[in-house]
Design goal:
By secondary structure, this protein is an alpha/beta fold. It has a single domain (3-157), classed as Response regulator (Rossmann fold). It is built from 6 helices and 5 strands, in the order βαβαβααβαβα. Residues 1-10 have low confidence and may be disordered.
Length: 158
């Protein structure tokens, strides 16, 4: 983890407390106002949303809380968030739908998402019409990982 991005003031960040059984989504963007659109979409889908004021607080929240989805803006200074997620064990990482937002490729660009270690990639220019791409990300994640989640459930039941 990039220690420069993790300041001591966030060492004691409070845990998010979503209602029991609810789904949780973490959204981090450096561009002010960008998180409002995805937050509205996820809240409408029944997710409890959480945000961070800076990358250091984001790293602390990701390390403390369990999220079903994370939406991260990819910019200089936010690499510590991906470093935190990439340090997780594989099963922990794959239990979270990671969506990166940036301006390096078109939305739903599979190669860009793979290179970044994300499940999906959305382009910043699509910010006004994010609902359809976000829904594609949620459905795509469910379709891809549902069989694996079922196997884990059956293994836990034995």
């Amino acid at each position: 983890m990039n220690q420069d991005a993790f300041s001591n003031e966030h060492a004691s960040v409070e845990p998010d407390l979503p209602p029991p059984g609810s789904r949780a989504c973490f959204i981090f963007t450096q561009e002010r106002g960008l998180e409002e659109k995805p937050a509205t979409i996820f809240e409408y889908q029944g997710y409890h949303t959480a945000t961070a004021d800076d990358p250091g607080q984001g790293v602390a929240k990701l390390g403390l809380n369990r999220y079903d989805v994370a939406v991260l803006e990819h910019k200089n200074g936010t690499s510590c968030l991906l470093e935190e997620i990439n340090a997780w064990p594989s099963i922990t990482r794959r239990s979270m739908n990671l969506i990166n937002i940036g301006d390096e490729a078109p939305s739903m660009h599979q190669s860009r998402a793979l290179i970044m270690g994300a499940d999906f990639y959305l382009n910043l220019q699509d910010r006004d019409s994010l609902e359809d791409p976000v829904m594609q990300c949620l459905r795509g994640y469910q379709l891809y990982y549902h069989p694996w989640h079922k196997v884990l459930e059956e293994m836990d039941a034995k």
